[in-house]
Amino acid sequence: MTAGAGILATGLAGCTASGGSNDAEPTNGSGNEGANGDGPAVAVASFFSFYDFARNIVDGTSVQVSNLVPTGLHGHGWEPNASVTRDIIEADAFLHVGPGFQPWADRAIQTLEDDDVDTRLINVREGVELVDLAATLDPEEEGVGEQQGKDPHFWLDPQRAMISVDTIAEGLAELVPEQEGALRDNAETYKSDVLERIDQDFRAIFDESERDAVQLAAHNAFQYWGVRYGAQMEPLVTNLAASGDVKPSDIAEAKEFIEENDIKYIANGVFESRKPAEQLLTETQVEGYFPVTPYAGVRDDWVENDWGYEEVAYNINGPTLEVVLGTKTPEEAGPDGWADEWMNFE
């Protein structure tokens, strides 16, 4: 598939999602029971991307999967109420991103261990090789958990994401061994039909560009694209969680980077402040900003349209990469009307 054909592909995933809980209803009548023997097995996820991987893995089985993070939130700096911990305790499995990335998830896991709760823990980061933190990070950034000095946003690399898909399938198969064949088959299908295709299409976008530099008016979460596809992803907000103010020196460096690389369009986080991007529009040669997201959350309209990792790749991140890398004009990128909706979005 060519990059252009890939980026225009939409609506390819068949699973459902609803609101903040994103409950995936069982799709057959096999009636396999959860660990407590009181109905279908239930898995809850601490992060949208891995919820979406899981719901594709359980498609056609009676396993139910829910996303704990409400619509519109990342789940990284979010502080849930006690009902979320209760949902985890009552679930048969908890999908999490490993220690150090989501403090609330770490506390929930500690509660499970302290109270000897038998909820199965599935660490989606297990077995993934993380890259070093970007040199552009503030000195205070220390990485995640037991892997200090490492960048946690590995799932942006489809090849690394495949490792998580296998980990999720294996964890759920141990939970409901009678469904192992279907779970593993679904995982293989998702890897080959979705993640492998995204990887190929994104590589084509980077390979077709004469520029290997992208300016982001967003937080420092996109290094894995640079590592995977051989480009410099230059963030304006130089911390992992987009929680700090933009310093004048950061603006000055961005202005120089934009000038040196003849950058016309930049990328801005969907769930982040527009102020830094608007400042670059005012103070540099940049003509517009377009949306980008580390697949960390979803908007209401994305939920309504049943968007997952795949749809966000092809409707948000892919078209923006085409524009900011200069392989397409805004009018040529994305589905019809994409530029009208997303250029300098509110």
Automatic annotation (TrEMBL):
<dbReference type="Pfam" id="PF01297">
    <property type="entry name" value="ZnuA"/>
</dbReference>
<keyword id="KW-0813">Transport</keyword>
<dbReference type="InterPro" id="IPR006127">
    <property type="entry name" value="ZnuA-like"/>
</dbReference>
<feature type="region of interest" description="Disordered">
    <location>
        <begin position="17"/>
        <end position="36"/>
    </location>
</feature>
<comment type="similarity">
    <text>Belongs to the bacterial solute-binding protein 9 family.</text>
</comment>
<dbReference type="InterPro" id="IPR050492">
    <property type="entry name" value="Bact_metal-bind_prot9"/>
</dbReference>
<keyword id="KW-0732">Signal</keyword>
<protein>
    <submittedName>
        <fullName>Metal ABC transporter substrate-binding protein</fullName>
    </submittedName>
</protein>
<feature type="compositionally biased region" description="Polar residues">
    <location>
        <begin position="18"/>
        <end position="30"/>
    </location>
</feature>
